[in-house]
Amino acid sequence: MKRREFIAALGGAAAWPMVARAQQPTIPVIGFVSGGSPDALGYLVSAFRQGLSDTGYVEGRSVAIEFRWAEGQYDRLPSLLADLVQRRVSVLAATTTPGALAAKAATNSIPIVFATDGDPVRLGLVASLNRPGGNVTGVTQLNVEVGSKRVELAHELIPAARAIALLINPANPLAQPVLNDSQAAARALDLQFHILEARNEGDFEKAFKAATDVHADAVIIASGDPLFGSWAEQLGALALHHRLPAIYQFRAFAVAGGLASYGGNFLASYRQVGIYTGRILKGERPADLPVQQSTKLELIVNLKTATALGIEIPQRLLATADEVIE
């Protein structure tokens, strides 16, 4: 059969480009969803891409990534996930706890790799750490579980403190566990305990003013909230502006003027999410991949802020800190 007759048999010349396109190989698509914002968490996306690269996947060449960001508005997550599910992505990389929970609710068939600050068993993401079961696995920094440690750290940094305040986002499912653990730690140290709330960045100024109104000697910002994580630098600057010793989990917070940061290594966690995503693309099942726990905690102290606030940091803490900002 001649080429012209062959094309006619396929439906004419117009059909030829469609045949050619159909022969091109397709690449898998990852749906990356987060409760935070791309500006604040871009460095973690780089770690995720590195994890993918470790398994042989390079964005734009062997894999595509569809990004969806809630930017602290958690009520947007169900529709963002519904769109990715409708697109039939190959894997969902669901970062931040609100993002992970929304992904779990959105599908029981598409593989999900999460990153969370909380206990994934208690949150209902997996049946157990060693045997996740179903279509979900991931990484936990367990930053919520060290909430009480931040209260103890505040007491050690400021021995004269008599009252502390905890800033939470009541819309976050991790807010209550953090509050419970922090309140118990404050009670054990005989500290007055005040609760501050912020649902969006517009509430931050009011929250810090409320902390000064109740004469809080220190402020602890609840971990596990993408809203606070997205505005870590601004929160650090606000703490310094209001002359309030404050502790959070991100280094950027301490650099911007917070007294200290204490939390897990997020870069390592997001890289592991990328590695697990790549392994699933290669054919492994989430149910067979144990949930990874980030056990390394980093303490960063801003000595410049301490000096400005008239706080003398104990030598023991300076000696054991992973970094001292001078």
Q: What are the secondary-structure elements, in order, as H or E? A: HHEHEHEHEEHEHEHEHHEHEHEEHHE
SS-derived structural category: alpha/beta
Shape: elongated
Strand content: 15-25%
Largest sheet: 7 strands, mixed
The DSSP helix count reads 14
CATH superfamily of the largest domain: Response regulator
Query: Architecture of the largest domain in CATH?
Result: 3-Layer(aba) Sandwich
Average predicted local confidence, pLDDT: 89
Instruction: Provide the spatial order of strands within the biggest beta sheet.
Output: 7-6-8-9-10-12-13
Tell me the count of domains.
Answer: 2
According to CATH, the fold-level topology of the largest domain is Rossmann fold
Determine and state the CATH class of the largest domain: Alpha Beta
- Point out poorly predicted stretches: 1-23
Termini separation: 80 Å
Fraction of residues in H or I helices: 40-55%
Secondary-structure map:
Layout: H1 3-9, H2 16-22, E1 29-34, H3 38-54, E2 64-69, H4 77-86, E3 91-95, H5 97-106, E4 112-116, E5 136-140, H6 147-157, E6 163-168, H7 175-188, E7 192-197, H8 204-213, E8 218-221, H9 226-230, H10 232-241, E9 246-248, H11 251-255, E10 260-264, H12 266-281, E11 292-293, E12 297-302, H13 303-308, H14 315-320, E13 323-325
Parallel strand pairs: 1-2, 1-3, 3-4, 4-5, 5-11, 6-7, 6-8, 8-9, 9-10, 12-13
Antiparallel strand pairs: 10-12
Structural notes for this entry:
- The chain is α/β, with parallel strands linked by helices.
- It folds into two domains: 144 residues, Response regulator (Rossmann fold, 3-Layer(aba) Sandwich); 149 residues, Response regulator (Rossmann fold, 3-Layer(aba) Sandwich), CATH 3.40.50.
- Helices cover 41% and strands 19% of the residues.
- The chain is built from 14 helices and 13 strands.
- The strands form two sheets. It has a seven-stranded mixed sheet, with helices on both faces.
- Strand 6, helix 7 and strand 7 form a beta-alpha-beta unit.
- Helix 4 packs across helix 5.
- It starts with a helix and ends with a strand.
